[in-house]
Amino acid sequence: MTTTKEERLSALVDDEAEAFETRRLLDELAKNPEDLARWGRYHLIGDVMRGNLDRTAPPDFSARIMAAVAEEPQLLASSSRTLQGRLLKPVAGMGMAAAVAVAVLVGLQNFTGDPADPRMEPAMAGAEPVIRAAQWDPGQRNALQSMLEPDARTAQIQHSPLEHGSQQFLRIDMGDARFSSYLINHAESAVGRGPMPPHVRTVGHGFMGD
Amino acid sequence: MLRRLHLMCVVVALLATATAAASEQAAHALLQKMARAVDELNYEGVFVFAHDQRMETLQIIHARDERGSRERLVALTGSPREIIKDEDSIICVRPDDLDPALCLDPGKSLLGLPGVLPLRQGLDGLGENYRLRLGEQQRVAGLSCQEVSIIPRDHLRYGYQLCIHEPTGMLLQSRLLSREGRIFEQFMFTRIEFPARVADERLQPRMRGEGVTARPMETPSARTQVMEPDLRWRIGEMPPGFQVTGVSRRLMAASPHPVQHMILTDGLATVSVFVTRMDRPEDRLRGLTRSGGLHAVVLPWGEYQVTVLGEVPEATVRLIAESVFHDGENAR
User: Fold this and answer.
1) Residue B36 lies in a domain
2) Which residue has the higher pLDDT, B243 or B95?
């Protein structure tokens, strides 16, 4: 794995990858268990940093997955390569949510299939995105439904010529008076206080004391 | 086994479609009730607000009477400061020795309840860009509440997970999250009451006297300085689902030239585009920033500065910012 790959994975985790790049990365993730593990860890790291750890999978999550897998003898019998190939086939035409859900499910089976697998470390958060991917709607029923709904629109978005690392592209100073003024006007017009059509809107960006 | 799985998927999907339609309607009705409730109810409570790696506790007092909507927000953590908001003004109260930027900087200000949706009348267009779902019953601040999910249909917008107190319609908990379930901001009441009437003194700042400054923030007095907008400023490539719902041109604080303000919405998310002349080339910037789920991009266009910001993913603000142009020889 090259540094570039790590950066690309990190961008994916941070929701900063372009649509095409996202699709390609997810394809690669599905094929490469090592990358998948890394992707899971990046998510966990991100969550720790954001203090979202209450979202982490329960300790017995992988045990439960293993129990579920054990109930399907044919599943265990089939080679994981074939299973991956078949399950991933429909992903190409699907939206990202579907791709994530499928890629992670496949990954989980790989990692939890063999407890001796060194990649199955406690910090392996592969289980965690499953919960979060399904979190929109509780229960498998809705998770499946979201898998079936493609996101065709995002795929049409063109690449942006701007690069994050570009030297000309600076971070905006949030304390800048002009920017502050814009933010208040944005929030206020959305509340309907400005000369704009009224609609109910309140905004929260801090009130933070650092 | 796979065939069985596929068949199961199809059956499950069909069942889901039928129940989803009913869920969508009920969620829609509850959201409309909520949109009214947060503005029309009297309430006093304490909530926790977390975004990025920060967490604060705030007290909110909201009154709605013949004088309109009034609100007082008190920070219970960090530096002491209060914001008093009524129909005509927003005033920040803070100790003199506190960094003045703490009141000026909206990155550190809070205009009303976070997590409250930018719901427009009738939720027009919401269904085209989001799916609505009723979730489970939860309990927040000692009250039972109904979970409602607003799920974005693509990656150009964020979604919400809300918990709404059904008898009143009050929003008790909210999460702003991406389609993948990544949480950007969340807030939750820990205590809330609904008094029949809010005494005036409850809406007065507690911090008074020497050593305390009350300063008005940018106020809607800008209304009096409205000018004719330059309609030749256009957005070349509008992200799917968005449309311009308002254009104005007016003077704003901290800008010597008038600012053109275009508002885009997709029925839920609001994006603002600001365009203003910038005399000195060194002032025309290229940049981006993020605070919670809010993304902002600034780009130069000729002698003008284009600023785009909204609670949408970075890709969306960038797409808009890059496609703003002036359809004419000389921009005003």
Assistant:
1) yes
2) B243
Helix axes A140-148, A96-113, angle to 10 degrees: 130
A54: closest CA of chain B, how far (Å): 12
Least Cα separation, residue B199 to chain A (angstroms)? 23
- Following DSSP, what letter does each residue of B218-255 receive, concatenated? S-GGGGGGEE---TTEEESSPPTT-EEEEEEEE--TT-
Range of the structural domain that residue B41 is part of: 26-216
Cβ count near A123 (within 10 Å): 10
- Rounded CA separation A149/A176 (Å): 42
Is-above-0.80 flag for pTM? no
Model confidence at A54: pLDDT above 70: no
Residue burial A87-120, b: 16+ Cβ < 10 Å; e: rest: bbeebeebbbbbbbbbbbbbbbbbbbeeeeeebb
A50: closest chain B residue by CA: B53
B220 contacts on A by Cβ (under 8 Å): 188, 193-194
Nearest CA in chain A to B155: A154
Q: How far is B312 from chain A (nearest CA, A)?
A: 12
Task: Give me the percent of chain B exceeding a pLDDT of 70.
Answer: 80
3-class DSSP string for B184-221: EEEEEEEEEECCCCCCHHHHCCCCCCCCEEEEECCCHH
**B321 and B177 share a domain?**
no
Query: Could you give the 3-state DSSP secondary structure of residue B269?
Result: coil
**Rounded Cα distance, A58 and A42, in Å:** 18
Q: Are residues B148 and B242 in the same domain?
A: no
Q: Are residues B278 and B206 in the same domain?
A: no
- The confidence score (pLDDT) of residue A42 equals 61
Amino acid identity, position B100 = P
CATH of the domain at B50: 2.50.20.10
Say if residues B268 and B126 touch (Cβ distance below 8 Å): yes
B276: amino acid identity, one letter: T
